[in-house]
Design brief:
heterodimer; A: mainly alpha; two-stranded antiparallel sheet; 15 helices; 2 strands; B: mainly alpha; two-stranded antiparallel ribbon; 3% strand
Chain lengths: 354, 323
């Protein structure tokens, strides 16, 4: 038996982890590459659909249960997923394998989505591009909502519980929270390293001056496509993890408000372009949002309005105040310092020796 | 069939007005107004609340809805937009600021809805005002309602009114001059601030007007604006975002093609396709953006005119205003 942690803290941790993955991927595209990504939900819902549609079907066909169109029927679906979960509960390696297989698949599809997005992204500017990507997101949401055979449509489907081997009680929530935090930090470090790589510097150059980047021989079209592909892959991983965590998939919960505009607010609070700021921005908002949800009933005693609307007002006000008084966010992006001269010389000597 | 065409006209008229509002604000202040969604939503709720609480016909409250949303526009201008314009913010920042305003307005609509539900026991979370519309009589066993005609008439009146205002009045010319070239207009003694306030007011009023009229065609719920904002943006972009008349036309076209197109497709393929009606305006918008970024209004008719004719028409205008 593991020692118990307050479920509120675990909730905050989970929201923080998923928010971090999505926001960091958004920051890579908006803050570093300068692409106005207003369709983040597109890649997120793609990842969630992968988690909802693929692993369950795969396991169902392995154990001889219906895996075709009838898998997505919600009456049959929960029975199938229940059987799958019983198998997953005793088979750790299978669970982990399925988890990683799904994440890789989600990342591949997410990057494919990013590649498609690059078609308008190299032709349109700023607001126009934002509106177009927003429209793409709505299309995929409408399709997921209405096509039952993919992932249950309006009824949704259950997602196989790949964390069942941890247990079913409080230890499950602790384990899942830790795993998700792990994923969040891995994604964060990956993007941090990416930003500091030659690729990241090229993206920044493109953002600051497209013409100058072109002059130095950078292929703008390719860079934009690559940034969108990496961002899309990361966001899809976030979406898939969220679907695994919640254990169910419903298209209606993947709105542009929750998965595009909220992450934008997180990013603006942290400071657009500053990856470290994302940690703070996401953390502050996850704490506030989780607390508002947790103390719903207590809050209604103080303020006469429903806490959900209170949350909207809070986020709206935060965006406006940030835009007006601190457009660079809490932690503005700092110019990346180059190495001192003697350090560079040392590295040069070392390379020469080799 | 008659019923369908009338409904399509009523719907498209509302969309055309809201699209014109988006374009007007964009032209004057370079701001893509996301708050349009909630402004339209407020239009729905002003009409609903007025009709449910005070009676009469819903039409009495449509002008009130326009006025209210227009005031919301002024509020957003003075609260957020004015400062950002002075600071020379980027289009994306301007867009984000209206998103923040939209969230607050959306929360306010929801609070108002809760208030109506609890205080007056109204069914405010979901309402249909269509049946409260005035009936003009029956034709082919179709109950002809007033909204298609009123909606179309309002669109025509808006076109005429805006045309007269922009082309014939001194302030209208000042508006056009500011939109064309703000520094130059400022040099000539035009106060751009007045133009910005006016365009936010008119843009908001068009949103309220469109929302009020749409509430008689489609069912209302707090997030109705968020659902149809894509169609509104589509109309605005198909119209080219550079001319109010273009976006009135674009909005009408998009609304009509959405309403009639999806019904036509459902007759051909079956009712399941009705759920995808949103894809028609989205496709129209994306295709316009990718294939013809200037929109329909960007097609230069003058290019096809003979040269002397063009010069003549210009000199006429110069003489008239004595510039």
């Amino acid at each position: 038996m593991v020692f118990e942690i307050h479920p509120l803290i675990l909730n905050i941790l989970v929201n923080f982890a998923i928010g971090l993955i999505i926001t960091v991927s958004l920051n890579l595209e908006v803050g570093i590459a300068g692409i106005s990504q207003f369709g983040r939900v597109l890649a997120v819902i793609t990842g969630a659909i992968v988690a909802a549609a693929i692993p369950g079907r795969l396991l169902a066909s392995l154990i001889g249960l219906p895996a075709g169109v009838e898998y997505a029927d919600h009456i049959i679906n929960f029975k199938i997923v229940d059987q799958i979960n019983r198998i997953l509960a005793v088979n750790v390696s299978l669970s982990v394998g399925i988890l990683f297989f799904t994440l890789i698949l989600a990342a591949l599809l997410g990057s494919f989505i990013g590649y498609i997005c690059s078609y308008p992204a190299i032709r349109l500017k700023e607001a126009y591009l934002g509106i177009t990507l927003l429209a793409f997101g709505d299309v995929v949401n409408t399709i997921a909502w209405n096509v039952d055979p993919i992932a249950g449509g309006t009824q949704g489907v259950n997602v196989p519980d790949v964390f069942r081997w941890i247990g079913v009680g409080p230890e499950r929530y602790l384990g899942v929270a830790l795993i998700l935090i792990g994923f969040g930090l891995v994604v964060f470090i990956f993007v941090e390293r990416l930003i500091r790589s030659p690729f990241g510097r090229a993206l920044k150059a493109m953002r600051d001056s497209e013409v100058a980047a072109k002059v130095y021989g950078k292929d703008i079209v390719r860079l934009r496509a690559q940034a969108l592909m990496v961002g899309g892959a990361l966001a899809a991983i976030g979406g898939a993890l969220w679907a695994f965590y919640t254990g169910s998939f419903k298209a209606v919960t993947y709105t542009r408000l929750t998965w595009t505009f909220w992450p934008w607010a997180y990013m603006m609070l942290g400071g657009i372009g500053n990856n470290l700021g994302m940690l703070v921005g996401v953390f502050v908002f996850s704490v506030i949002r989780t607390l508002i949800y947790a103390y719903k009933t207590e809050l209604t005693a103080f303020i006469p309005i429903s806490p959900q609307w209170f949350e909207y007002i809070l986020v709206g006000l935060a965006i406006i105040i940030l835009v007006l008084f601190r457009p660079q966010g809490l932690f503005p992006e700092k110019p990346a310092l180059t190495l001192p001269r003697d350090e560079v010389e040392k590295i040069r000597q070392r390379i020469k020796k080799e | 069939m008659l019923d369908l065409i009338l409904k399509a006209f009523a719907y498209s008229g509302g969309i055309a007005l809201t699209a014109a509002g988006i374009t007007l604000i964009y032209m004057a202040t370079r701001t893509f107004n996301f708050a349009h969604a909630s402004m339209v939503g407020w239009g729905f709720y002003i009409v609903f609340a007025g009709y449910s609480l005070l009676g009469g016909t819903p039409y009495y409250y449509v002008p009130l809805a326009a006025l209210f949303s227009g005031l919301l526009g002024i509020l957003i201008y003075f609260g957020v937009n004015r400062y950002l314009l002075k600071a020379g913010a980027s289009p994306i920042t301007l867009m984000m600021s209206t998103l923040g305003a939209d969230l607050i307005l959306l929360a306010c609509i929801n609070i108002f809805t809760d208030y109506l539900t609890e205080e007056y026991k109204l069914n405010a979370r979901y309402f249909v005002l269509e049946l409260r519309d005035i009936s003009l009589g029956m034709a082919d066993s179709v109950n002809i309602r007033a909204i298609p005609f009123i909606s179309s008439a309002v669109v025509v009146l808006t076109i005429v009114g805006l045309h007269l205002f922009l082309k014939k009045t001194k302030f209208g010319i000042a508006v056009r001059a500011t939109i064309e070239n703000t520094p130059l207009a400022t040099v000539l003694g035009i106060n751009p601030e007045k133009v910005y306030v006016l365009s936010w007011f008119l843009g908001g009023a068009l949103a309220g007007l469109g929302g009020g009229l749409l509430s008689l065609t489609i069912s209302g719920y707090p997030t109705v604006g968020m659902t149809i904002i894509v169609t509104m943006f589509a109309g605005s972009i198909v119209g080219g975002l550079s001319s109010v008349f273009g976006s009135l036309f674009g909005g009408f076209l998009v609304g009509l093609s959405e309403y009639l197109g999806i019904t036509g497709l459902s007759l051909a393929f079956g009712g399941w396709i009705l759920a995808y009606r949103l894809i028609i305006p989205l496709a129209a918008m994306v295709l316009t953006l990718l294939l013809y970024p200037q929109g329909l209004a960007g097609i230069k008719i003058e290019k096809f005119m003979l040269k002397p004719l063009r010069i003549k028409s210009q000199s006429k205008e110069v003489k008239k205003y004595g510039v």
